[in-house]
């Protein structure tokens, strides 16, 4: 199958009526917010998007995205590779349409259409990949350059005993 660049925006209603499928890639360089968290922005994200309608007649955009990125290990500070995989299911709504929000099932996330009735597919994929990034990426302890023994910073001695604040009440009760 031929790899093609994913469109930046799509009209979800027209795409759902045509039951459009998009299978392609997005260069990591184009995902600027995600690239800020990475060591290198070389490579590409493999994306698959399917548009259609569900039993309720809602327009649905389902898909998946995957890529390998290079991030900094929080334990040792060295570079490490992390595989990001995410699946998503969205239904587009018009901004400020509160009545439509109540009818949408929980299995769908909501995405707002812009003034032209389109959604930004690149931004949707970038948001999903940012959410898939680990908060604190770390190598496995067996592989990491910093061992558990070197991470200890000494012994914490026993806590000094403090006087009981209720001892004063006990003295008053005895009188």
UniProtKB/TrEMBL annotation:
Database matches in NCBIfam families: PRK11193.1
InterPro entries, per the entry: YceD, YceD_bac
Descriptive protein name: Large ribosomal RNA subunit accumulation protein YceD
Positions of transmembrane segments: none
A Pfam short name: YceD
Superkingdom: Bacteria
Family membership: Belongs to the DUF177 domain family.
Described function: Plays a role in synthesis, processing and/or stability of 23S rRNA.
PANTHER family assigned to the protein according to its UniProt record, in alphabetical order: LARGE RIBOSOMAL RNA SUBUNIT ACCUMULATION PROTEIN YCED
Provenance organism: Rheinheimera muenzenbergensis
UniProtKB keywords: Ribosome biogenesis
């Amino acid at each position: 199958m031929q790899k093609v660049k994913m469109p930046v925006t799509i009209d979800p209603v027209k795409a759902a009526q045509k039951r459009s499928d998009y299978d392609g890639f997005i260069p990591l360089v184009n995902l600027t917010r995600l690239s800020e968290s990475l060591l290198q922005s070389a490579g590409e994200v493999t994306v698959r998007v399917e548009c259609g309608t569900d039993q309720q007649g809602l327009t649905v955009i389902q898909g998946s995205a995957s890529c390998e990125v290079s991030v900094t290990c929080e334990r040792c500070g060295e570079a490490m590779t992390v595989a990001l995989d995410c699946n998503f299911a969205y239904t587009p709504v018009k901004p400020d349409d509160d009545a439509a929000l109540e009818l949408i099932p929980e299995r769908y996330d909501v995405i707002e259409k812009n003034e032209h009735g389109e959604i930004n597919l690149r931004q949707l994929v970038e948001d999903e990949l940012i959410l898939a990034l680990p908060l604190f990426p770390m190598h496995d302890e067996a592989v990491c350059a910093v061992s558990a023994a070197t991470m200890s910073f000494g012994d914490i001695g026993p806590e000094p005993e403090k006087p009981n604040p209720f001892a004063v009440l006990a003295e008053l009760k005895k009188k």
